[in-house]
Amino acid sequence: MESLTRKSREVMPAANRRWLIGAEPFFEGGWFHKGERARSWDVEGELVALSLLGDVTVDLSDPKSMPTEVHLKAYAIGRDVDVLIAPGTHVELMGWPDNDHLNNDAPSVPETERIRVLRIEGHTLLGDVVVRVHPDYQEA
Questions:
Q1: C-beta separation of 91 from 130 below 8 A
Q2: Please, which residues bridge with residue 17 across strands?
Q3: Contacts of 129 (CB under 8 A, 6+ apart)
Q4: CA end-to-end distance (rounded Å), the chain
Q5: Are 77 and 51 in contact (CB under 8 A)?
Q6: DSSP-derived 3-state class of residue 43
Q7: pTM
Q8: Comparing C-alpha atoms, which of 87, 39, 29, 34 is closest to residue 65?
Q9: Domain residue ranges in the chain
Q10: Distances (CA, A) of 87 to 30, 92, 106, 107, 132
Q11: What letter does residue 4 receive in the DSSP assignment?
């Protein structure tokens, strides 16, 4: 029985999760939210963004690879979590009802035109969670 349990654990994949932390001045994730490198990364299926003393920008607009469905837990504590997406990304933003600190500024995408689905569970305390289309994709 022991070997069967151990073998089952080996077969099951580990959680595919990335933590993004904004805690300036102690830790600055500048590589993640500045310049071209911010847009070219392999996105995991589950992301956790924590803004604590510093903003976090999650740039999902032009990744190297990304699953068709991504779950993001966003914790805005004292600062902001900004999420940048590409057109065709459907956003579902969830959190406490009547929370004016959760803002989905992305346009609605019909089900037949969706490329990706981004499900965000937002939690705020003196900060905001804002989702919008990346400025490079904005119409002139």
A1: no
A2: 46
A3: 74, 76, 80, 81, 83, 93, 95, 101, 102, 103, 120, 122, 123
A4: 64
A5: yes
A6: coil
A7: 0.77
A8: 39
A9: 17-137
A10: 24, 14, 8, 8, 10
A11: H
Q: Is 93 exposed, middle or buried (0-12, 13-18, 19+ CB in 10 A)?
A: buried
Residue 122: what residue type? G
Closest by CA to 34, choosing from 49, 56, 53, 19, is: 56
The alpha carbon torsion through 13, 88, 138, 64 (nearest 10 deg) reads 30
Kindly give the confidence (pLDDT) of every residue in the chain, 140 residues in length, as a single tens digit, with 9 standing for 90 and above. Answer: 444 444 433 433 445 766 676 766 544 444 444 444 455 778 888 999 998 878 899 999 988 889 999 999 999 998 999 999 999 999 999 998 778 899 999 999 999 999 999 999 999 999 999 999 999 887 64
Token digits of residue 36: 């071209």
d(CA 23, CA 37): 20
Query: Peptide bond before 13: cis, by omega within 30 degrees of 0?
Result: no
Angle at 22 between CA 19 and CA 25, to 5 degrees: 140
Strands 56-60 and 129-133 turn out to be unpaired
